[in-house]
């Protein structure tokens, strides 16, 4: 805890309360809650195993499977190895189960009714709490910020770091405030609000910032609606989104299985009530929006910032400034198969997807049922899927009669998972299929190679299912306000807490405490660092000189750098030939596209990428993106800006991202196109052009030091073991509800002295 009288934002308060050590702004931050899923954890567990490390705080770690699993009926489920047909998905899920057993973690498997998308189950269980730090190897961890938690996505190297140390190395972000005031218009929801915000700030608008959402509109929203907003803070480029906790937050949390109880509840509320930004706190960026200006909103392009009112038209490339932005629009229209000027509400659709960590909570399903009730899915719609976010959401929806309303209307009622949000499982769009989707990303190929995604709210997706085209939900008056026939049951509103308890019919997976890290005879921090560095093949970065490949597009997202089908690997290597897969190979023939720079000589040998468009690496936290680039031979990327998580991930892999002003990147891009060599000198912090010109760049001193020396972060952090122990002791005293004693009867006994390690 930092004692200070300076007015602070909500973000600064939570950040300060988690500082374990502060070395000139390079902090070690304690992590309260760690969610783990199958896609981003195998390499992290492998790293632990290779270095002989354990999971430091199993009581603060919760794992589930969500991305790879089929959403078909589970009546015949016996085990992952017999149920999941696709081999790589099966291997990835089975690997998680093995790791869970080996490292003794709590796990909601496919036979547990609490299984679901990580970002749905954390809040549902009360695992996510105000004032906590929450991380997951997943960019939409920002969702949990709706509770006033500091929650953000991390890459796999950081997953390993948290598993081993329960901390992260971190620097303070900037503060951004998005204030929305007034009542929302008819048919307008939190999803429209957040799409509208991203349309205004752009997908790089929040880069380097934590966004605090505030104002009377936000305060009036339910927790479900707040979660949808914070979920998409990452789509606005922010590290995290946060909303100050209030009575709505407390009411949502009270009696959740892992929320504090009795006296601890009162103590927690007292602390949580201090988590408001001070009135005089200052923000680096402020955006003010009137709720009445937000229309029902839908996306037209391939970036979440490509949004318009449903009453609007597809924009024309000429409405964008010449250069990468106009090029980006042209490419998006071609990919989406749309003509500039077309009316959004006349665009026919083939499929509807209602689900994802943005919109698969009970309120979302109620909104869909309210539109669909007494109506039928249009005949041109091949599939309208409803995928509840968790087993608990599904059970509650069924108890409320929502499933019967929706199946009567022709919707497909599924089991919980990520499903068609990213299609790592069997739920996918076919090429050119167009989908109204409640998910969060409309990137090229996101829901299936060649598939076309239009992001919208659950009510709008339901309206689209009914009419067969993108539709203004305000056109559809309620069809059956009070019907009670058998096929259209009366909808009940039930208390979600009845569906989240530990009294599940399925058992809580056995989770044995791991105990303290060994001291006697165990390797020292330095020995561990050396071992881990060797295991991870940590490469030094000093000077890289070579050919550079120019990629001028804006917003090159990590789905573009490495699409979902390659995330099923449990290794870090071998992804080079899959880098930029969608752009690199002809979708019909599978042959290399001769127009793509990395397929052309001499750039097949490029070791540097130059990107004028900026916001490079936006979207998902997948560390597979830097792994793929590295495997392709790229050691350095020069751009006008980078998305935060990708930026971070490159350093962990011995790669260097360099940010330069537009005019310098344009010059270097030109050099690259003329096959002139570029030299990047980290020691001297300069990029040297072929003509001898030196362009200086900035890089964080600590990161530079680690890269120059090929240092292993985990080893460095473990040298601060005593500080971590001291922090844990104070944490147990100040915030006792954060030690996860609820899991598997485990009790955490705080260490009594600085040198005494954890005792279970
Ligand atoms: C697989 C995971 C790394 C990824 C993310 O970070 O968001 C996924 O959840 C996504 O939505 O693209
Ligand atoms: S965004 Fe989609 S794929 Fe990613 S965690 Fe959420 S539901 Fe899963």
UniProtKB/TrEMBL annotation:
Cofactor requirement: [4Fe-4S] cluster
Domain Aconitase/3-isopropylmalate dehydratase large subunit alpha/beta/alpha: start-end pairs: 12-468
Keywords per UniProt: 4Fe-4S, Amino-acid biosynthesis, Branched-chain amino acid biosynthesis, Iron, Iron-sulfur, Leucine biosynthesis, Lyase, Metal-binding
Highest taxon in the source lineage: Eukaryota
Enzyme class label: lyase
Cleaved signal peptide residues: none
GO biological process: L-leucine biosynthetic process
Region (Disordered): 503-526
InterPro entries associated with the record: 3-IsopropMal_deHydase_lsu, 3-IsopropMal_deHydase_ssu, 3-IsopropMal_deHydtase_ssu/lsu, Acnase/IPM_dHydase_lsu_aba_1/3, Acoase/IPM_deHydtase_lsu_aba, Aconitase/3IPM_dehydase_swvl, Aconitase_4Fe-4S_BS, Aconitase_4Fe-4S_dom
Location of the Aconitase A/isopropylmalate dehydratase small subunit swivel domain: 538-663
Pathway assignment: Amino-acid biosynthesis; L-leucine biosynthesis; L-leucine from 3-methyl-2-oxobutanoate: step 2/4
Pfam families listed in its UniProt record: Aconitase, Aconitase_C
Gene Ontology cellular-component annotations: 3-isopropylmalate dehydratase complex
Reactions listed under catalytic activity: (2R,3S)-3-isopropylmalate = (2S)-2-isopropylmalate
EC number: 4.2.1.33
NCBIfam families found in the cross-reference section: leuC, leuD, PRK01641.1, PRK05478.1, PRK12466.1
Family, per entry: Belongs to the aconitase/IPM isomerase family.
Role summary: Catalyzes the isomerization between 2-isopropylmalate and 3-isopropylmalate, via the formation of 2-isopropylmaleate.
HAMAP family: LeuC_type1, LeuD_type1
Name of the featured protein: 3-isopropylmalate dehydratase
Lineage: Eukaryota, Fungi, Dikarya, Basidiomycota, Wallemiomycotina
């Amino acid at each position: 805890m930092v004692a200070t009288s300076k007015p602070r934002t909500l973000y600064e308060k939570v950040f300060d309360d988690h500082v374990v050590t502060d070395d000139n702004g390079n902090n070690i931050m304690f992590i309260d809650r760690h969610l783990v899923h199958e896609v981003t954890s195998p390499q992290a567990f492998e790293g632990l195993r290779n270095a002989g490390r354990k999971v430091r705080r199993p009581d603060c770690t919760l794992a589930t499977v969500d991305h790879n699993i089929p959403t078909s009926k589970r009546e015949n489920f016996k085990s992952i190895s017999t149920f999941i047909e696709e081999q790589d998905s099966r291997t990835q899920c089975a690997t998680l189960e093995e790791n869970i057993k080996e490292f003794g973690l709590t796990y909601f498997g496919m036979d547990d009714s609490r299984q679901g998308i990580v970002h749905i189950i954390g809040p549902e269980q009360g695992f996510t709490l105000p004032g906590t730090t929450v991380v997951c190897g997943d960019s939409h961890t920002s969702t949990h910020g709706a509770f006033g938690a500091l929650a953000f996505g991390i890459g796999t190297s950081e997953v390993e770091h948290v598993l081993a140390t329960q901390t992260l190395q971190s620097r303070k972000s900037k503060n951004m405030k998005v204030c929305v005031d007034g009542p929302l218009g008819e048919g307008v929801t939190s999803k429209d609000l957040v799409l509208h915000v991203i349309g205004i700030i752009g997908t790089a608008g929040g880069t380097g910032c934590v966004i605090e959402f505030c104002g009377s509109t936000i305060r009036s929203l339910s927790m479900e609606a707040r979660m949808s907003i914070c979920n998409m803070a990452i789509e606005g480029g922010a590290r995290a989104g946060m909303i100050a906790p209030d009575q709505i937050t407390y009411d949502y949390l009270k009696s959740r299985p892992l929320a504090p109880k009795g006296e601890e509840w009162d103590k927690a509320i007292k602390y949580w009530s201090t988590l408001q930004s001070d009135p005089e706190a200052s923000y680096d960026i402020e955006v003010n929006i009137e709720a009445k200006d937000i229309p029902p909103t839908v996306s037209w392009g391939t970036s979440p910032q490509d949004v318009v009112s449903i009453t609007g038209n597809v924009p024309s490339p000429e409405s964008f400034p010449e250069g990468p932005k106009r090029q980006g629009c042209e490419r998006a229209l071609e990919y989406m198969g749309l003509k500039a000027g077309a009316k959004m509400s006349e665009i026919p659709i083939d499929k509807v997807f209602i689900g994802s960590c943005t919109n698969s909570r009970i309120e979302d399903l109620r909104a869909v049922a309210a539109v669909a009730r007494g109506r039928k899915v249009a005949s041109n719609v091949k599939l309208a899927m409803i995928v509840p976010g968790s087993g608990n959401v599904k059970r509650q929806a069924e108890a409320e009669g929502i499933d019967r309303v929706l199946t009567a209307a022709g919707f497909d009622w599924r089991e919980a998972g990520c499903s068609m949000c990213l299609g790592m499982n069997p739920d996918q769009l076919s090429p050119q299929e167009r989908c109204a989707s409640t998910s969060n990303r409309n990137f090229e190929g996101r829901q299936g190679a060649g598939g076309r995604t239009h992001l919208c709210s659950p009510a709008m997706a339901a309206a689209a299912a009914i009419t067969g085209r993108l539709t203004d939900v305000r056109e559809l008056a309620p069809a059956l306000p009070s019907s009670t026939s058998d096929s259209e049951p009366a909808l009940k509103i039930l208390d979600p807490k009845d569906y989240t308890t530990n009294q599940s019919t399925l058992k809580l997976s056995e989770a044995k405490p791991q105990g303290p890290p060994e001291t006697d005879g165990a390797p020292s921090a330095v020995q561990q660092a050396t071992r881990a560095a060797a295991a991870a093949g940590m490469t030094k970065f000093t000077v890289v000189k070579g050919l550079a490949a120019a990629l001028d597009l804006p917003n090159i997202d990590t789905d573009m750098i490495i699409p979902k089908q390659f995330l099923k690997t449990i290794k870090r290597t071998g992804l080079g030939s899959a880098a930029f897969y969608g752009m690199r190979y002809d979708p019909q023939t599978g042959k290399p596209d001769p127009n793509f720079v990395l397929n052309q000589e001499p750039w097949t040998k490029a070791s540097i990428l130059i990107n004028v468009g900026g916001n490079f690496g936006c979207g998902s936290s997948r560390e597979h993106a830097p792994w793929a680039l590295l495997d392709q031979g790229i050691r350095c990327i020069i751009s006008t800006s980078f998305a935060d998580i990708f930026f971070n991930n490159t350093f962990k892999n011995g790669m260097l991202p360099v940010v330069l002003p537009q005019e310098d990147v344009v010059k270097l891009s030109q050099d690259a196109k003329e096959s002139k060599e570029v030299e990047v000198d980290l020691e001297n912090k300069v990029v040297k052009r072929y003509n001898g010109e030196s362009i200086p760049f900035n890089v964080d001193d600590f990161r530079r030091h680690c890269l120059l020396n090929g240092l292993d972060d985990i080893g460095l952090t473990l040298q601060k073991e005593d500080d971590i122990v001291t922090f844990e002791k104070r944490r147990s005293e100040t915030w006792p509800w954060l030690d996860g004693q609820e899991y598997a009867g485990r009790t955490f006994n705080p260490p009594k002295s600085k040198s005494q390690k954890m005792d279970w």
